[in-house]
Amino acid sequence: MKFLAMLAASFSLIYCVMAVHMVQFPTQKKAEEIQALSLHVKDAKASLSFPTNAYQRFVYAQ
Amino acid sequence: MLSKNFVEYAILLLFKDRNDHLFSFLIFSFIVFILSSVLFISDSLQYDLIQSIKSQPEIVVENTRAGRAYQMHEGYVYDASKITGVSSVEGVVEGYYYFAQKRLWFHIIGDARLAKNEMLIGQGVQKAMAELYYKDEFHFLTEERLIKVKINKIAPKGTNILSNDAIFLNPNTARAVLGMEMDEYSKLYVSVPNPNEVGNVALKIVEIYPTAKATTQADAIGAVRHLYYYKGGIFMILYVVSLVSFFILLKNQIGLVYGEKKKEIAILRSLGFCIKDIIALKFIQNTVVSLSAYLLGVALSYIYVFMFNAPYLRTIFLGNELENSISLTPVVDVNLLFLIFLFGVIPFLAFVILPAWKIAISDMSEAVKS
């Protein structure tokens, strides 16, 4: 029983830390920043950057 | 009702056989960790992108020629503004600039707030430029001339999902960089105040210009969901294959272990334990193992994704050409976690209890003799 209690306590602690992190994360601030950007650049696309091997042969500098 | 002593005895046995359970615990934790991490990242990216789409105009019109994006002129703006239900049409400049020295594509976006000789850049662009000593000013190389623009501001880190590879320029400077004429646009933003008319207006635009592509807000949200749809299709097949392989492995391993423990089960039976008690004993042990593995897997994936911003795994979603130090917004889908629990922990218990039951009902006198 002692082991189970300790296991439950440690998981509760980890999940409490996660909950605190989630609450403290500046979600609102980030949403406002994104919204501020989207107000001027209305059709913003996800900023993805995958390799474009096809163009490497034209490159003149490493 | 299970007594306290019975539960304690089950835990004692679990400790005694800890090496047998360690394998299933570690593998199951790892599977839950990977699965939750992928879904956490995709949910977080979807959340941020959909957030930005909400500010988007009702319809975005792009022109194509031979299947490629092609510029539009003032005539398109005029025609679109004459459609019933449209309140305003705005032409915008957008395109890609190839930064050959670093083999990168920068996303050029026209922003009327900026002066002609200044620009706002994303953090990934800033790092790429700084590596080649463009710190205060950048030189755009075009077919005709070299355009010098001052690096004025850096976009905040919170917007990295949208701005990491972006350079915001005055529309006229953007036109010069992209080689466009002064009255040309890359896209049109069409505002339609009545949401019921959006579909009709989009259809009318496509009727007037058959080569144009009219994307509504709903289409844009659908595209984002499709881009990060890791809950179905090929991914669902991969999840199912990995889980089924794990359960088969688990069943074989547990079958082998219980086979060796046949004598122990026989002794328990001779002491007065009935089949129900043996199954309860194994159920308690494996519930502790599977539940701990599940909780640990989910907790580790949360820490990995939202506290450390998913190093390595992040590049699968965002690409690695341009360094992207994005901070992932914690978005936890409880339904999804419950689904992982349902398809992870329940089959785990089933695959473990079946071999235990099989041994418990076999002839015990033979097992004791051996």
**Main pleated-sheet profile of chain A:** none
- Overall form of chain B: elongated
Content-based structural category of chain A: mainly alpha
Shape descriptor of chain A reads: elongated
Mean pLDDT across the residues of chain A is 79
Largest interface: A-B, 41 and 67 residues
Alpha-carbon distance between the two ends of chain B:
34 Å
Gyration radius of chain A (Cα, Å) is 23 Å
Work out the number of β strands of chain A.
Answer: 0
How many structural domains in the coordinates of chain B?
2
Please give the alpha-carbon distance between the first and last residues of chain A.
Answer: 63 Å
Beta-strand content of chain B:
15-25%
The class by helix and strand makeup of chain B works out as alpha+beta
Strand order, sheet with most strands of chain B: 4-5-9-6-8-7
Mean pLDDT of chain B: 87
Topology:
The complex is a heterodimer of chains A (about 60) and B (about 375).
Chain A: H1 2-24, H2 27-40
Chain B: H1 4-16, H2 18-53, E1 59-65, E2 68-70, H3 74-81, E3 88-92, E4 94-99, E5 104-110, E6 118-121, H4 123-130, E7 137-141, E8 146-154, H5 160-163, E9 166-169, H6 171-178, E10 187-191, H7 198-208, E11 212-216, H8 217-227, H9 233-260, H10 262-270, H11 275-307, H12 313-318, H13 334-360, H14 364-369
Parallel strand pairs in B: 5-9, 6-8
Antiparallel strand pairs in B: 1-2, 1-10, 1-11, 3-10, 4-5, 6-9, 7-8
Can you put this structure into words, describing what you see?
The complex is a heterodimer of chains A (62) and B (370). With 62 residues, chain A is mostly helical. Chain A has two helices and no strands. Chain A has helices at residues 2-24, 27-40. Chain A is elongated, with a radius of gyration of 23 Å. Chain B has helices at 4-16, 18-53, 74-81, 123-130, 160-163, 171-178, 198-208, 217-227, 233-260, 262-270, 275-307, 313-318, 334-360, 364-369, and strands at 59-65, 68-70, 88-92, 94-99, 104-110, 118-121, 137-141, 146-154, 166-169, 187-191, 212-216. Chain B has two domains: 4-52 and 228-369, no CATH class; 58-216, no CATH class. In chain B, the strands form two sheets. Chain B has a six-stranded mixed sheet with strand order 4-5-9-6-8-7. In chain B, strands 1, 2, 3, 10 and 11 form a five-stranded antiparallel sheet that branches. Chains A and B meet through helix 1 and helix 2 of A and helix 1, helix 2, strand 5, helix 5 and helix 8 of B.
